[in-house]
Sequence to fold (94 residues):
Amino acid sequence: MLTPVPPAGGWVPCAKLPSPYLYLPSPAGIAPNSPGYVLAGADANLEAVQAAITTAMSGSTRLTVNVTLDGTGSIVVINGAQLPFVVLATAVAA
Fold:
């Protein structure tokens, strides 16, 4: 079965991301207008973020991650006790 093309500006799994990226699952699935978060500051280091998320998941603790939303700095709080998985994506040079 083929999946229809997402709406313009929506999630494109084969997109080349200009910055490291974090996707967190939600019960509603991927939102076409907000598929995830651009990692910011020290949290743009994927190895460090992966280690911190792994620690939060194995210890059932919370973790804050610095992100950018629409060009503005923000924080995402991850609950390691409830998180089944994350997807971290590497930036690709244009």
Observations:
- Residues 21-27+35-81 form one domain.
